[in-house]
């Protein structure tokens, strides 16, 4: 298979130009292109350039409104509410960010909800952004229903990830937890299906509720929750924050993040930012340093987010190899 080697700047430009061609304003396209760059930088290929043709398709069919103008409101001192207006979540999050982070510093804690939204890329990047602002970040995003409750077979909630990041003392993140409620992110199964590869045992059920290792059958069936009922409970928590509390569509009512059918998905996100000094005094930094060290010093163990950090250093230095087939699909999008 032929491929091209691209630097990260070129990846961001490629994504932005493709989205603008498909009908997005620069204000909508630029944050998504930056998110695409960050995903490729961290080795999260399932959320990188692979998604650009899908984004372009959804702009053209109206699942995402390319000229959307997010509206930001602050109904309470510690509450920020953003209407994404059926545009990309990234632009809506950027629109509310200055008000949100200022509120967290003023109040000690603040929350921002986003509704009438779309998927927000790698959720951990938003949590990490809060950590880089010196805040503890806890983030939720819901998705179209693709996961059945334990013992059931009809999808009720999405893979529904949550992410947590904490600041270090140098303007970065000490650790980043980013995990979906399902055994694996659905985008990984989509990637396997596109490549004609089987999935791992325990990832999914087919439409009859039977375990499957066929990626296409999994997409027609149900994702399996991580840890059984505990994983479903985590996904339900995310659904409450990101959909019910934000005013976004439940996963039951959201159109798929793939394919042209169904109109805008109208999903939601919910972000909580905490100024550690408001609650711990000076105790937070030393406590986190000790906790992180107790994990990192053990042979074979690693802090959450360490693999991404290693990928980041390598890819920032060496760039990304992109299959020509994917570049052709982006050019045609």
Automatic annotation (TrEMBL):
Keywords: Oxidoreductase. It holds the Pfam family Ldh_2. InterPro entries: Mal/L-sulf/L-lact_DH-like_ah (IPR043144), Mal/L-sulf/L-lact_DH-like_NADP (IPR043143), Mal/L-sulfo/L-lacto_DH-like_sf (IPR036111), Malate/L-lactate_DH-like (IPR003767). It comes from the Bacteria. PANTHER family: MALATE DEHYDROGENASE, OXIDOREDUCTASE-RELATED. Belongs to the LDH2/MDH2 oxidoreductase family. This is Ldh family oxidoreductase. It comes from Roseovarius ramblicola.
